[in-house]
Amino acid sequence: MEKNNKFLLIAFLLLFSGFVGAQVLESPTIEVTKDRTTVSVVWSPVPYARGYRLSYAPFPYVGASSIQTIDMGDATSLSATLWDGASFYVAVTAYDDSASSGFSNIELFFLSAAPVLNPDALPVTGGSWYKPQVSISWQWQLNGEVNSDYPVELYDIDLFDSPATLIQTLKASGKKVICYFSAGSYENFREDQHKFDPVVLGNTLDGWPNEQWLDIRSLAVAEIMINRLDLALQKGCDGVEPDNMDGYLNASGFDLTARDQLAFNKLIANEAHKRSLSVGLKNDLEQIPELIDFYDFSVNEQCHEYDECDALEPFIQAGKPVLNAEYLQKYSADANERDSLCNAANHARFSTLILPLDLDDSFRLSCLGER
Questions:
Q1: Which of 294, 288, 306, 192 shows the shortest CA–CA distance to 240?
Q2: Three-class secondary structure assignment of the chain
Q3: CA–CA separation, 275 vs 24, rounded Å?
Q4: For residues 279 and 295, is the Cβ–Cβ distance under 8 A?
Q5: Phi, psi of 121 (to 5 degrees)
Q6: Is the Cβ–Cβ distance between 300 and 324 less than 8 Å?
């Protein structure tokens, strides 16, 4: 959950509860479940309570004036059908004739209609989300304990392996946080791996024995990825880096077309933006002209090594950064090679790092010069 919004909301709720009376009642515990655009909130009965009040506020939280309250009487649940993209914080208090309890746990939910894979979809333009600037400084670490000490503006870290406390710590130090997950491949070590039907699992990725290409035409796959975007929202990520977005160019085991890929990549971008999440395009250089309006930045590996950097220029021209990583040993071992790389990267206004392939922070060199 986004730290600043949540802390402001908690502070107001605690202040409000202090005026209601002595907190002699237990605080309820709430559980939120979703089914498309229907949300259900259930809370535990509180001994001696005469009734309950449900408080809600929109996400992003915009201040105390946005908090609304419903007197639920003695009911211990509420179910409501809202709209695609509805997003709210909810909490419950118990009350008797003279006092109110403290607030329950505060939960954030985001409702989504059934996904539609449409290669001709238009970009989501309404809403507000983080939009990084060209030549931004960044750190990319997906393995090992994250080193949070780099004086950079943006961190790109693993969605599943990074606790919300780490994300909050990075944001408290003024950094933006992008959360990585693989959208186009199945990883057999992820906590949601049991959700994938074997029928959507294709060939193993070259060089990655624990990953298989996904059938991105499947709405079930789209649902899982939307759930991952919800997880990014709940953890407080400012944006996401969905990986392996070019299955149609690989031996995936499925007969994927360019239009299949466009439909999937557009869906991921639009669903991220509905959640006020920034989103970066990974891979799929061939479709940048069709996707540039959907994505806020690019995450690229080895465009200098493979002479592909020209394909990324539309991002820079659109005022969107290219976060580039290079892995060749010559760049870390030879100062002249490194200077040549960095001169080219800086001229192109790319944010280029020289990193280990494992992205484990065993070393890091930046063409922008920060340490």
A1: 294
A2: CCHHHHHHHHHHHHHHHHCCCCCCCCCCCEEEEEECCEEEEEECCCCCCCEEEEEEEECCCCCHHHCEEEEEECCCEEEEECCCCCEEEEEEEEECCCCECCCCCCEEEECCCCCCCCCCCCCCCCCCCCCCCCCCCEEEECCCCCCCCCCCCEEEEECCCCCHHHHHHHHHCCCEEEEEEECCEEECCCCCHHHCCHHHEEEEECCEEEEEEECCCCHHHHHHHHHHHHHHHHHCCCEEEEECCCHHHCCCCCCCCHHHHHHHHHHHHHHHHHCCCEEEEECCHHHHHHHCCCCCEEEEECCCCCCCHHHHHHHHHCCCCEEEEECCHHHHHCHHHHHHHHHHHHHHCCEEEECCCCCCCCCCEECCCCC
A3: 38
A4: yes
A5: -60, 150
A6: yes
pLDDT in tens, the chain (371 residues): 455 566 556 655 555 554 444 448 999 999 999 999 999 999 999 999 999 999 999 988 888 899 999 999 999 999 999 999 999 999 999 999 999 999 999 999 999 999 999 999 999 998 899 999 999 999 999 999 999 999 999 999 999 999 999 999 999 999 999 999 999 999 999 999 999 999 999 999 999 999 999 999 999 999 999 999 999 999 999 999 999 999 999 999 999 999 999 999 999 999 999 999 999 999 999 999 999 999 999 999 999 999 999 999 999 999 999 999 999 999 999 999 999 999 999 999 999 999 999 999 999 999 998 76
Non-local CB neighbours of 209 within 8 Å, separated by 6+ positions: none
Residue type, 87: S
pTM of the model: 0.90
Q: What sign for the dihedral angle of Cα 249, 251, 257, 263?
A: negative
Sign, Cα dihedral of 310, 120, 131, 7: negative
Q: Which amino acid is at 335?
A: A
